Structure prediction request, 86 residues.
Amino acid sequence: MSMLNFNLRGISSEVMVILKQEAEKQDTSVNALILKLVEKGIGFSHEVKRPVYHDLDECAGTWTLKDANEFEKSIKDFEKIDKDLW
Prediction:
């Protein structure tokens, strides 16, 4: 798909200030923010909706402090960096 460019005229200074503030807050450019807002406004999105799984819900929050400590101890070796491999 080819990318097209156009100029957007007539933006008030107040709106521009808000756009700049929002772009900074989102750590993006004003251009990227405007594209995102236009796409959202027309119902177009590049975002892929990922399914939410609930198959492990019954396990959540079931560990005791002892269980957690044992798990942490059992994976301690994975925190070591083998410098020979790097």
